[in-house]
Amino acid sequence: MSQSIMYHPDSLKDRRLARAEGIISYYFSNPVVLREALQLADASHQIGNRNLALLGNTVIHLILVQEGLRRRATRGQINKIISERSSNAYLAQQGFSNDLAECVFANQSQGSTIYPRPMASTVEAIIGAVFNDSTEELTTVKRVMETLGVSWPE
Question: Which residues form the RNase III domain (predicted)?
Fold first, then answer.
């Protein structure tokens, strides 16, 4: 018999999840997926959000390629946008500017400091989590990417 996980917005952990959902304007049917996306690797969470970040990175590339092709961009233009919008520096900047740092479950050895590379991974992981939770609905993922500023530039 499986146990269901209770979601209590009053707890600190659940407030972080609710805050992240508000930031990205997507509400998870399974908040555990979002919790995983916000968890940095540490001694007790050895993988942290790394698997979701890998998935998210791939989904970012897919959506940017699709949008570039829809806009009839050249391969060079598409590659340039992918390089810019999926770079660690850009993803970290978007994560910090959208106030996601306060939602991250940080590595205990680093205290409350969230560094740029883990923030970039968290943004990727959130996108991967939305992809999973939305049953791979690319329109939904694209909307979240737009909210985070990770979409094709206008």
Answer: 17-135
The number of domains in the chain is 1
Decide: 59 and 125 in contact? Cβ < 8 Å: no
Question: Which range marks the domain in which residue 74 is found?
Answer: 12-148
Q: Does 140 map to a domain? A: yes
pLDDT value of position 11: 60
b or e along 102-124 (b: 16 or more beta carbons within 10 Å of the residue's beta carbon)?
ebbbbbeeeeeebeeebbbbbbb
Inform me whether the pLDDT recorded for 21 exceeds 60: yes
d(C-alpha 93, C-alpha 6), whole Å: 33
Rounded Cα–Cα distance for residues 36 and 130 (Å) = 12
CATH for 126: 1.10.1520.10
pTM recorded for the entire structure:
0.88
